[in-house]
TrEMBL record:
Residues 912-925 have a biased composition (Basic residues). Residues 1092-1102, 1141-1181 have a biased composition (Acidic residues). This is Nuclear condensin complex subunit 3 C-terminal domain-containing protein. The lineage of its organism: Eukaryota, Sar, Stramenopiles, Oomycota, Peronosporomycetes. Residues 693-759, 904-925, 1016-1037, 1066-1181 are annotated as: Disordered. Residues 744-759 have a biased composition (Low complexity). SUPFAM superfamilies: ARM repeat. One of its GO terms (cellular component) is condensin complex. Residues 536-580 form a coiled coil. PANTHER family: CONDENSIN COMPLEX SUBUNIT 3 (PTHR14418:SF5), CONDENSIN COMPLEX SUBUNIT 3-RELATED (PTHR14418).
Length: 1181
């Protein structure tokens, strides 16, 4: 056989190998199910062996190493087999995957030291280069297949030369910007193994991040395709730098990306490398994710990774999660573990002694086992088996008897604060006990009552104690619970009153003064009255000295070593000072208010119960107290007290309003007031707050004829609001309140009334309160902001409020640049709660009713007008610090287009079951876009008229015009309301013909809007018109011109002030520029003078070096040079003086004419003196 025939034979064999691989791939489905598993690799082993044998037999030459012709032919045939798959019109993914995997297995090299047949490395390099060239093909299918095949081959190569790896990185990085999503995905997978390994700790810390890692990180965060983000996330090599970015992806919008994030973190990041706060964040997001598969991924991360890393101990896992700070996360994890144990009981049996069942037995055996985590898991076990798993036998085996529990609870509550969390868990455990033992039940109730009476009991335990007491009494009588608690409160409060009586008797003069002051202020404010006992206080000097010393000790404590002798001494001194600053009666009163607050929350009785009604005796005096803690607790209790009766809420709403508007009030008190006002608005509809205040003497004659009518109206309204059995009592209370100047005074009933000045109720507008609350949204307190936003969202959804100003404030808050910056500062990528609430509120609010759409339209109109009336549309220093009206208009127009309603209507139309039940919902026919567009046009026309005035600066007007054009670009005209559409088109024509005469760019934008509107108007119009419609359009145009005049008057006043401010700002900028130039000029002039002085010194020191025969010519040249030098210096100095004189003149214009004259005279004298000196110097020379 000839050489050509032999070559033809083995080339046919090579082609047959590739064909067999493709045929086997089509017949077997294992390629798709498990393309990288062991089963798939076994199917390729015979074909790889055949190809290796063919390469060794035909290409390798024993003498020369490689036969060049055979090598070139083998390369061409191999590439031809691969290229057929790339360019074939119809190729299955299975075939491409099989061929690529086969090529990768054939070309694979395990390491740099592994022996390879000669020529195989060159073959690998050449094939990969051709594949890299194919990734740049113009055909999208070829480009995609080449990227797919290249990433499969690269990922199968265990070793790649550095030069080849560099070429692969460059090629694949270029494909990351491809417009095809699938190409980007394959490129990402191809770069997975091309990332550089992370440097060891301590080495090259300042080295820049790998380019591949940086690009993958960018795609993971910002790529619009969820599949690309998922591929980038899975391909990244996890490191400490990338950990935070992975943590943000668990809040991705795509379910697939979130699932991949949990899988990646669970597999690649050990529990010890995750901070405790991040652990809680991961579990909080994952265990309550809306997607079941994401929740399951998070659960598998806990069960398969974290639980095993904690030696399969629930207590150690809870300890790693810091359940004292994150108890809710601990509960979710505990129940997840218990569910896992119940489904797989062998997991418990294999690890004996790992799961602690009964903490009482553990404590009796080993006191160190009684830890916060063990008690927490014990309680969770009892709750799970009793409430969730309904295994009462296991629950009974775990729970103690009531007597033992009572002893343990009392001992824990009386211990130090380090076991406070354990005491809280025991109080919650008490709800699971069996109270059939009457003796144990009574014993527990007595212990709880003693804990309430003791001031040493921590305040954080009061809630749990009260809830447990209410639970125990719920089996018998709630009235008994109320009476017992009332007796405890009375016993603790009576010593405070008794001590106040002693102080009053020992200091009669002070009491007379205080009573006289009370008479002077009576009737002015509810919060300004003496409601109850006045506490003994330190003098102002003593209290101030004690507070200063306490602050000094606190600062000193921060500098000392923990638990040192000096540290303990300073801490003891601080405790003594704190005890000195705290009055025991203040603590008793605070404890009374804490108990009253819990009673008002737990009881279902109202003011018809005299015991509940009597709680006002402890609440009202605290509201007027000067101790901030008492005042805050009093306002909180008063808010809860007002929720029991509507008339009580109307009476005391002014108290919260005044405290909220008091600039000297504590921020915690204001937060309490906000919550109380919102709670009352939730609980009662049609609130009519009023103020009881004493009328002025000069108003008696005017109001004399209206007193009886107002009294009758108030009595009728009060009787209508309360028709229950307590109506008479409340009416009597109102009469007492009016007689006493608007307040109850149970502590001093002997004070005489003032019948000569009867009180008349002053109405307090509820909208005023809501607008005042809305103005507090702009504060820097994010907690207060989220509270107000959440309250308003609920009120709007409940139809309790329809104030467009408040809705406009919410809309402005949603697009607040400051709030957008806040959400980017959080390490977990959290948005602020206010933004989250508003993002859900606005779409739901618009979809609810058509009236809500009108409210949003009016709010948008209000926001547009108020934005035009602001003095500054932009901040010159920070352009991004102002509201983006364009984005706001885009969002509002999108909501008012009702696109979501059309989608829901289409979905409902597809479902036959719903179609039978109800009618197909139709899209709302509205013209919100037309009316908002008309408002924008009116503002533009008004601005154009105002701009014609000479006192208005053009920049102030142009800024507003640009903002209006950005908004009007999102308006889409509709003929659902023909008159508004015609008026909108007419106003646009007026704008293009009369406005923007000097602004060509703005005029082109307006013409584009008009062109688009006219085209849409023509498409929708039916060409039906009559005389009636023409007259209506004329009326609308007349109405619009009238509104333009009104807005012109308003904007004229605003823009005059804005122009003056803008002129001041321009002058300030100009002064700053001139001052900068002056500083630069002085620096240059000082430098030139120094250089000229040095030159003159050098010239003076040098001897006359010119020969005698050249004396005349040298003298002439020297004179000419000196004259030229002086001329240049004179010109330079003249320019400097001129600039300095201009700057000084500008400053003198502001300081006054006299200073200007003096400065100019001094400048003239200085210039004259300098000229004389220059002339004298010239004469000397």
């Amino acid at each position: 056989m000839t050489t050509a025939e032999v070559m033809a034979e083995w080339t046919l064999t090579l082609r047959q190998v590739f064909q067999d691989v493709q045929l086997q791939a089509v017949e077997a489905s294992s390629y798709v199910r498990n393309p990288s598993g062991a089963a798939h690799q076994r199917t390729l082993v015979p074909a790889v062996r055949r190809l290796d044998a063919l390469f060794l037999d035909e290409v390798r030459d024993g003498k020369r190493g490689v036969a060049e012709e055979a090598f070139a032919l083998f390369l061409e045939e191999t590439w031809l087999a691969v290229a057929r798959v790339l360019v074939a019109p119809k190729v299955s993914d299975v075939v491409l995957l099989a061929v690529a995997s086969f090529a990768g297995e054939f070309l694979r090299r395990k390491s740099a030291k592994s022996k390879q047949p000669r020529g195989k490395d060159e073959l690998r390099v050449e094939l990969l280069k051709r594949l890299m060239e194919a990734t740049a093909a113009e055909d999208r299918v070829v480009r995609l297949r080449a990227c797919h095949m290249l990433q499969i081959v690269v990922n199968r190569l265990e070793f790649i030369e550095e030069e080849l790896a560099k070429q692969l990185r460059t090629t694949m990085l270029r494909r990351l910007n491809d417009k095809l999503t699938s190409v980007r995905i394959q490129s990402v997978y191809g770069l997975k193994t091309l990332q550089r390994e992370e440097e060891e700790e301590g080495e090259k810390e300042e080295k820049e991040e790998d380019e591949v890692t940086r690009e993958l990180r960018k795609l993971m965060v910002s790529d619009p395709s969820k599949d690309v983000r998922k591929a980038a996330l899975q391909s990244l090599t996890v490191s400490k730098k990338l950990y935070q970015d992975l943590l943000v992806r668990i809040r991705d919008a795509s379910e697939d990306v979130r699932y991949a994030a949990f899988r990646t973190i669970g597999n690649a990041v050990p529990l010890t490398d995750i901070q405790i706060s991040d652990r809680a964040h991961l579990l909080d997001q994952g265990l309550q994710d809306r997607a079941p598969r994401v929740r399951r991924a998070c659960e598998q991360m806990v069960l398969k990774k974290w639980f095993l890393e904690c030696d399969s101990s629930p207590v150690l896992l809870l300890q790693a999660l810091d359940i004292e700070q994150y108890p809710e996360i601990g509960s979710k994890v505990s129940r997840l573990l218990l569910k896992h144990f119940s489904e797989q009981p062998r997991a418990m049996l294999e690890k004996e002694g790992v799961v602690e069942f009964n903490a009482l037995e553990l404590m009796s055996e080993n006191s160190e086992a009684f830890s916060a985590e063990s008690v927490f898991f014990w309680r969770e076990q009892c709750y799970y088996y009793q409430k969730i798993d309904n295994d009462l036998d296991k629950a009974a085996a775990l729970l103690p008897n009531v007597s033992d529990f009572s002893k343990m609870l009392v001992g824990t509550c009386k211990a130090q604060s380090d076991v406070l969390f354990i005491a809280q868990q025991l109080l919650e455990l008490g709800h699971l006990l069996d109270f059939q033992d009457e003796f144990g039940r009574r014993n527990l109730l007595d212990s709880l009552q003693k804990l309430l009476r003791e001031l040493t009991t921590d305040s954080l335990l009061i809630k749990g104690i009260m809830e447990l007491m209410a639970f125990v009494y719920s089996g018998s009588s709630e009235q008994e619970f109320i009476q017992v608690v009332a007796e405890i409160i009375s016993d603790m409060y009576d010593p405070v009153e008794a001590a106040n009586a002693e102080i009053s008797s020992s200091q009669p003069e002070d009491s007379e003064i205080s009573s006289s002051q009370q008479k002077l202020t009576e009737g002015d404010e509810i919060s300004g009255l003496d409601f109850g006992p006045q506490l003994h206080k330190l003098s102002d000097e003593e209290r101030e000295a004690a507070e200063d010393k306490f602050e000094e000790l606190e600062k000193r404590l921060e500098t000392l070593e923990f638990d040192s002798e000096e540290y303990n001494k300073v801490q003891a001194d601080m405790v003594e000072l704190e005890a000195l600053l705290q009055d025991p009666r203040v603590l008793s009163w605070l404890r009374c208010l804490e108990i009253v607050a819990q009673l008002l929350k737990l009881t279902s009785h109202n003011l018809s119960d005299p015991v509940v009604e009597g709680m006002g005796r402890y609440i009202l005096p605290a509201v007027d107290n000067d101790v901030p803690a008492l005042r805050e607790a009093g306002l909180e209790n008063l808010g809860l007290f007002c929720l029991l009766d509507k008339r009580l809420a109307e009476r005391y709403l002014i108290v919260f309003w005044r405290a909220l508007n008091n600039p000297e009030e504590e921020s915690e008190v204001k937060h309490t007031c906000v919550q109380a006002i919102l709670d009352m608005a939730f609980s009662f509809s049609n609130l009519q707050p009023h103020i009881f205040g004493a009328m002025q003497p000069e108003d008696d004659d005017k109001a004399g004829g209206d007193k009886d009518e107002q009294a009758e109206e108030n009595s009728e309204r009060n009787e209508a609001d309360n028709g229950d059995q307590n109506a008479d009592n409340n009416a009597d209370q109102d009469e007492d309140m009016e007689k006493n100047g608007g307040s109850e005074q149970p502590a001093a009933p002997e004070q005489p009334a003032a019948p000569e000045q009867p009180a008349a109720p002053e109405k307090l507008d509820l909208d005023t309160i809501f607008i005042g609350l809305g103005q507090l949204i702009a504060v820097n307190d994010l907690d207060l902001q989220s509270t107000i936003v959440e309250g308003f969202c609920r009120l709007f959804m409940m139809n309790r409020i329809d104030n467009i100003t408040v809705l406009a404030i919410l809309l402005e808050t949603y697009f607040s640049p400051k709030l957008q910056k806040v959400q980017k500062l959080d390490e977990h990528g959290f948005q602020s709660r206010s933004l989250q609430l508003l993002s859900i509120f606005f779409p739901a609010f618009v979809m609810a009713t058509a009236a809500n759409c009108m409210l949003l339209e009016e709010a948008a109109t209000h926001l547009i007008q108020k934005s035009m009336e602001k003095l500054e549309m932009e901040t010159e220093s920070e352009n991004d610090a102002m509201l983006d009206l364009g984005a706001c208009a885009k969002y509002v127009m999108h909501l008012l287009s009702h696109n979501e309603q059309e989608e829901e209507a289409a979905i409902d139309a597809v479902k036959p079951s719903r179609k039978k039940r109800s009618k197909k919902p139709e899209r709302r026919r509205c013209a919100h876009h037309n009316r908002i567009g008309i408002t924008i046009c009116l503002e533009m026309l008004a601005l154009e008229k105002v701009a014609a005035m000479p006192s208005i600066h053009s920049d102030v007007v142009i800024r507003r015009q640009k903002a209006l054009l950005k908004m009007i670009a999102w308006v889409e005209v509709t003929l659902d309301e023909k008159r508004s559409a015609a008026l909108f088109k007419y106003l646009l024509e007026e704008i293009t013909s009369k406005c923007f005469s000097s602004q060509r760019g703005l005029l082109r934008s307006a013409e584009a809007v008009l062109k688009r509107t006219s085209a849409s108007f023509t498409e929708q119009s039916t060409n039906e018109g009559d005389g009636q419609q023409a007259s209506a359009e004329e009326q609308d145009q007349t109405w619009a011109h009238g509104l333009v005049k009104e807005r012109e008057e308003v904007l004229n006043k605003v823009l005059l002030t804005a122009s003056a401010d803008h002129e001041k700002w321009l002058k300030q900028q100009e002064r700053e520029k001139k001052a900068k130039r002056r500083r630069t000029a002085r620096y240059v002039s000082s430098g030139s003078s120094d250089s000229s002085d040095s030159e003159s010194k050098e010239e003076g020191d040098e001897p006359a070096a010119a020969p005698t025969r050249r004396e005349l010519s040298s003298r002439r040249s020297k004179t000419a040079a000196v004259s030229r030098m002086h001329e240049k210096e004179g010109e330079f100095e003249a320019k400097i003086k001129e600039a300095l004189q201009d700057d000084d003149a500008d400053e003198d214009d502001e300081d006054g004419d006299e200073e200007e004259d003096s400065e100019s005279e001094s400048d003239e004298e200085e210039s004259a003196a300098e000229e004389e000196e220059d002339s004298a110097a010239e004469e000397d020379e």
